[in-house]
Amino acid sequence: MSNKVIFFDIDGTILNHDKEIPDSTRVAIGKLKEKGHHVAIATGRAPFMFEDLREELDIHSYVSFNGQYVVFEGEVIYENPLNKDTLASLLTYADKEKHPLVFLSEEDMMATTGIHPYIEQSMGSLKFSHPLKNRDYYLEKDIFQTLLFCEDGIEERYKRYEDLRFIRWHKVSTDILPVGGSKAEGIKQLAMRLGIKKENIYAFGDGLNDLEMIEYVGTGVAMGNAVNQLKDLANFVTKPVDEDGILFAVKQLGLL
């Protein structure tokens, strides 16, 4: 049995641009498991957004919400929700700025407004429909991530919140996380649980929310379709997701 753990981002890494899993990626993940490696997911998505994918790939350990909610073999081992007082203030300010929000718990998501084109456009890019409206959802559930819908650069106005960090993932949408929260922090929690050393941790990603993760792990892999900042940080740049990038990398890195 090997003692390596390999984390995969979802969008642009496991999933191609059509939100499908390339056959070569299924093969690679299957072979990694056969070798005895531990395969996990590290994503900005909420757990309910990739349940089917976990079942399909038979993966039961994951870092979700960019590190705020971590599960090891089906058991929740770490939670870092957003502060409710901060969320109340954020909602008031976003209303004033006329920007909608979406609150996400581990089970569901709710919007602060009815149908809005920015929400439809960005959620549609993930193949999700517009969430229902429930402005009080943040009071009812622990919220691990909030989405802010505004044009690029406008989120600068929200830097007044010192306990929040903003990571853009779509031209009209930005993730809101607690300061200090990142995929790297989530991976650290899982690695402690596994008792695994950093040099035995690998991670694959493509976006801005993968920067801390790629920097933190022993071997960081950027997809060929990754943003340039990530490629600059990575130990290895593989081929794009649509060109069997994952299978190519795991072979090149001697994981198979």
Automatic annotation (TrEMBL):
InterPro entries: Cof, HAD-like_sf, HAD-SF_hydro_IIB, HAD_sf. Coiled coil: none annotated. This is Hydrolase Cof. PROSITE patterns: COF_1, COF_2. Pfam families: Hydrolase_3. One of its GO terms (molecular function) is phosphatase activity. NCBIfam families: Cof-subfamily (TIGR00099), HAD-SF-IIB (TIGR01484). GO terms for cellular component: cytosol.
